[in-house]
Amino acid sequence: MSELMASLAALAGFVVGALAVMVVRQNMAQRRMMTPVDDVEPGALPHGVASVLAVLPSSAVVLDKEDRVLRASSAARAFGLVRGDHLMAAELLALARQVRRDGEIRESEIEVAGHKFGQESTNFAVRVAPLGSYGQVLVLAEDQTEHRRVEAVRRDFVANVSHELKTPVGALSLLAETIQDAADDPEAVTRFAGRMQHEAARLTYLVQDLITLSRIQGAEPIPTPGPVPIDEAVHEAIDRCNTTAAAKDITLVAGGAEGLQIWGDDELLVTALRNLIDNAVAYSPEHTRVVVSARAAGAHIESVEISVSDQGIGIPESAQERIFERFFRVDAARSRATGGTGLGLAIVKHVAAAHNGAVTVWSKEGSGSTFTLRLPAFGGMAVAVPGSTTIPQEAAQ
């Protein structure tokens, strides 16, 4: 009996001991889970911070109390904010030290010398916060360069539109007052009424171009795409430009291959070609010609190239990269004299992009220009047109 009692007592002691160990281990686990950031050892990252930093898209840096980098994201190193274990931006270091002193979260914007090809500087929106009680500081920097660029483009666009609209509207107002004052002079009324018609037409073209540009520049898919015969689009665009060309005795010539097609919007393609032909006519001297030619590109006709070549004044090499910008003019005085809106080539660029294509330019001052639309082909085969060939670029000039 005594042996039985002793065995039961030993078993009870074992159970109590095991339960005590389990309770202690559970408490220790809970304490580890609930350990605050302040209990982290100096020089170590708080629990979970490394995992968070690894998935952040922005540049993230953790500094210790001596301003050494404990952890930096790949973006921070790519932008040159961190080199080795040093934070390279002096402004960020100053902010980190202020935050470490008073524990206040700070936000700012800084500009750092560019580390991307062709980019002079990078703008960052910065947020700096304390991280624990061992002097660690978290620095987050978000690249705002593209956002700034878009904002600048938007401001320039609004300013340019305001200016372009103000010019014909102001002219119409002055001409109306002049006609009113010259009511007794039929000849003057006729002359100024003609000027009013010219300014009204210019205003109409500007509004139409703005509507077209706003419709296609949003990178939205073409609503009702279909097969577009290149022959028909070229002839339609030439027909729309014949009157302007005839006024300067400029001959419009269509050549190249027949039967080519693209998949897209026929009206948009005609608009792009009309703008290229109008541009060629406006900057060509009298008694010259403008050649519109199409050809298949690629061994299996992967794309279609439509070129518009003129014998005009040409474009300076320094301006060729900017001619597709909205409202950019190589010669502002000449552009206004021709009645251009400064939006034609921007529309061409966006039409090409909407069709998954591109537009390029070859030009030489005094020898003319060739603009080429390269668009993905759809069906059809290129067939040589009897008596008509694609004129080589050099010959067209």
Radius of gyration: 35 Å
In total, how many beta strands? 15
Quaternary state, please?
Answer: single chain
Looking at the overall shape, the CATH architecture of one domain is: 2-Layer Sandwich
The topology string of helices and strands comes to: HHEEHEEHEEEHHEHEEHEEHHEEEH
At the first level of CATH, what is the class of one domain? Answer: Alpha Beta
Distance between the termini: 121 Å
Low-confidence runs = 1-40, 380-397
Description:
It comes from Streptosporangium canum. Residues 160-379 form the Histidine kinase domain. There is one protein chain. The chain has 11 helices and 15 strands. It has helices spanning 2-33, 49-55, 74-78, 90-102, 145-181, 186-216, 230-247, 266-282, 332-338, 344-354, 393-396; strands at residues 59-63, 69-72, 82-83, 86-87, 106-113, 121-130, 137-143, 226-229, 251-258, 261-264, 289-297, 303-309, 358-364, 368-376, 383-384. It is elongated and about 85 Å long. The strands form 4 sheets. Strands 13-14-12-11-9-15 form a 6-stranded mixed β-sheet. Strands 2-1-7-6-5 form a 5-stranded antiparallel β-sheet, with helices on both faces. Strands 3-4 form a two-stranded antiparallel sheet. Strand 11 and strand 12 (303-309) form a beta hairpin.
Features:
single chain, 397 residues, alpha+beta, Beta-Lactamase, Heat Shock Protein 90, six-stranded mixed sheet, five-stranded antiparallel sheet, 11 helices, 46% helix, elongated, disordered N terminus, disordered C terminus
